[in-house]
From TrEMBL:
<keyword id="KW-1133">Transmembrane helix</keyword>
<keyword id="KW-0460">Magnesium</keyword>
<dbReference type="InterPro" id="IPR004488">
    <property type="entry name" value="Mg/Co-transport_prot_CorA"/>
</dbReference>
<dbReference type="InterPro" id="IPR045863">
    <property type="entry name" value="CorA_TM1_TM2"/>
</dbReference>
<feature type="transmembrane region" description="Helical">
    <location>
        <begin position="275"/>
        <end position="294"/>
    </location>
</feature>
<keyword id="KW-1003">Cell membrane</keyword>
<feature type="transmembrane region" description="Helical">
    <location>
        <begin position="306"/>
        <end position="326"/>
    </location>
</feature>
<comment type="similarity">
    <text>Belongs to the CorA metal ion transporter (MIT) (TC 1.A.35) family.</text>
</comment>
<keyword id="KW-0812">Transmembrane</keyword>
<protein>
    <recommendedName>
        <fullName>Magnesium transport protein CorA</fullName>
    </recommendedName>
</protein>
<comment type="function">
    <text>Mediates influx of magnesium ions.</text>
</comment>
<dbReference type="Pfam" id="PF01544">
    <property type="entry name" value="CorA"/>
</dbReference>
<keyword id="KW-0472">Membrane</keyword>
<dbReference type="InterPro" id="IPR002523">
    <property type="entry name" value="MgTranspt_CorA/ZnTranspt_ZntB"/>
</dbReference>
<keyword id="KW-0813">Transport</keyword>
<keyword id="KW-0406">Ion transport</keyword>
<dbReference type="InterPro" id="IPR045861">
    <property type="entry name" value="CorA_cytoplasmic_dom"/>
</dbReference>
Amino acid sequence: MENATLTRSFELYAFAENHFEKHHLKSIQEISGLITPDKKFWLNIYKGDDDKVFKDVCDFFEIHPVAFEDIQNTDQRPKLEDFDNFILIVTKMLYTKSSIEALEMEQVSIAFNKNLVITFQEHAYDIFDPIRVRLENPYGKMRKLGTDYFSYTLLDAILDQYYVILELISDQTEKLEDDIINDQKKVHLADIYRQRKNLQEIKKIVWPTRELISSWRKSESPFVTKKVNPFINDIYESAVEIIENLEMQRESITTLVEIFMSNISLKQNEVMKTLTIIATIFIPLTFIAGVYGMNFENMPELNWKYGYLTSWIFFIVVSLLMVIYFKRKRWF
């Protein structure tokens, strides 16, 4: 790999209550001279095009092979696992770089012990910039509390992004509803089902995320301190709130589909009513035209001088009378 790519792959933050430094590393071996027991460290890695980088890091820190498989396999469902030297949290990060139609999902694995937090990401883009800024603040809790609190802030940032995505979906749903009511030609059924699909994808990851937070609350690992329990309870409540929000959004989408289909049915009924009125008007006209079109010899009206003109007058009068009748009945 090129040096520029490697530099971006390893991002190391060393911090303590009165200390902060940041390093861009070219290789994992450079970490050996930087990690000391008197500080806490955050190592942020993204795989990019290098499939070996996660393996190298896991081997370097002696992370369990089962944990490595969970980190490497990006199709994992969110979960938490306790190991002797690390706690592993596997979760999903959601973000959008343009519009909600381009919803991105990426697996983020967080491994932490007493003084080290490692985040494994698939791509360089992430949502952790506010955490990087907070880390530079010497008066914040992030510097004072342990790595379990820092891991909480990472998961909290991921959950906060779920709120942002759900708000975008909600805004899009409201826009679709307005368009359906005002001008349904702007809306396609595929647009509504795309919203439903996004909600289903989020639901698949939020439910197991709540379970992993519940497991974190019950963890007896030495890497989880009592000081962080209130914060873990806070993100548990956030996960529950997100699930409730999801259910409300799904109901809104279901209602939207019903409105869409009802509007289509109404328009079809309007078309059928118009065609029925036209056909009804032509029934007596067709009858008269059919009778006098039989050309029997003993039909005196056929030789009448004003027969043709009278027929047209009769057609027009009957049509007008039927239109007036339908109007009074408010059939159109």
